[in-house]
Structures are given as structure tokens and as C-alpha cells.
From TrEMBL:
Tagged with keyword Oxidoreductase: yes
Protein name: Pyridoxamine 5'-phosphate oxidase family protein
SUPFAM superfamilies in alphabetical order: FMN-binding split barrel
Keywords: Oxidoreductase
Single GO molecular function: pyridoxamine phosphate oxidase activity
Organism of origin: Mesorhizobium album
Domain (Pyridoxamine 5'-phosphate oxidase N-terminal) ranges: 5-115
InterPro entries for this protein: F420H2_bilvrd_red/Heme_oxyg, Pyridox_Oxase_N, Split_barrel_FMN-bd
Catalytic activity, EC: 1.-.-.-, 1.4.3.5
Superkingdom, taxonomy of origin: Bacteria
Length: 150
């Protein structure tokens, strides 16, 4: 991957904080859900409930697809990412605590939170490692994408 494209991916990851992640349900239907995320380079992290359908789906099949984008005022300003990736549960407590400390930094200061941040024992944290990234940039032409294999 060339440096210009890597910088574009990194910028898009850093500019956003919400993604749609799709997992595979036991009946074969995809399940797409919106989650907050943080990233460290191209590695993404998100959390969900311990007994969530997402967590059960990933435990059975770690392949996920995701999108990161935003609503652009003009069609030719659309940019975003879509990825094929593998999601693995974070089991190392130090890594889990680091991720939980990164999450509030992704949001502007909050007047108040409804409660304390969860602990690693109260949530399931997933590390998402992309295998293929599609970089969408309509400024280069309608529907233009650059495909990157990681």
C-alpha cells in the first residue's frame, strides 16, 4: 500500500468514531449493527455486551465486514471505508484497559455520563484487523474506490 493511500485511510479512521459492523448470524443472515470504535493505526476496537448477538456471531465466525462514513452535503464529496476483517476478542487485561481509556478521548468532553465506564469484565472488547480495505472517494470520480490488501 502506498503512503498516500495509507494516510487517507488513517485520516478517515481518525476523523470518525462510529462504524457499521456486519457479522453472520447462526441462520446465515448477515446482522449489521452500529458501534462506536477507536483505532490504533489500522487496528480498530469496539465493545459490546457480554451476551450480545454480535459477540455470539463473532465467537462462531470471526469474519466481519464494516463501513465507516458520514453524510456528505454533495454527492461528489462522499468518502468512506469498507473493510473485510477478522475480529478477535481482547483477552489481555492491559490491552482491554488501554482500549477503555481510549474511548472517551474519541468524543468531545461530556457534561456528564450516565455512569462510570465499564470494566473489562463487564463488556466484550474486540480487536478488528482488516484484510481488505476499500477506500471510497467520489472526488476522484463517481463511485471511485481504491482496493488495498493488508
Amino acid at each position: 500500500m502506498d503512503q498516500e493511500l495509507k494516510d487517507k485511510i488513517q485520516t478517515l479512521l481518525d476523523q470518525h468514531r462510529v462504524m457499521t459492523v456486519a457479522t453472520l448470524r447462526p441462520d446465515g443472515w448477515p446482522q449489521a449493527t452500529t458501534v462506536g470504535y477507536v483505532n490504533e493505526g489500522l487496528t480498530l476496537y469496539f465493545l459490546c455486551g457480554l451476551d450480545s448477538q454480535k459477540a455470539a456471531n463473532i465467537a462462531r465466525d470471526d469474519r466481519v465486514s464494516l463501513t465507516i462514513d458520514h453524510d456528505a452535503p454533495q454527492v461528489m464529496e462522499i468518502t468512506g471505508l469498507s473493510m473485510a476483517a477478522r475480529a478477535q476478542p481482547v483477552t489481555d487485561r492491559a490491552e482491554a484497559e488501554k482500549v477503555l481509556k481510549m474511548l472517551p478521548d474519541k468524543y468531545p468532553p461530556q457534561a456528564s455520563l450516565p455512569g462510570p465506564m465499564p470494566t473489562p469484565d463487564q463488556v466484550r472488547i474486540f480487536r478488528v484487523m482488516p484484510t481488505v480495505i476499500s477506500v471510497l472517494d467520489y472526488s476522484k470520480g463517481f463511485g471511485h474506490t481504491d482496493l488495498v490488501t493488508c
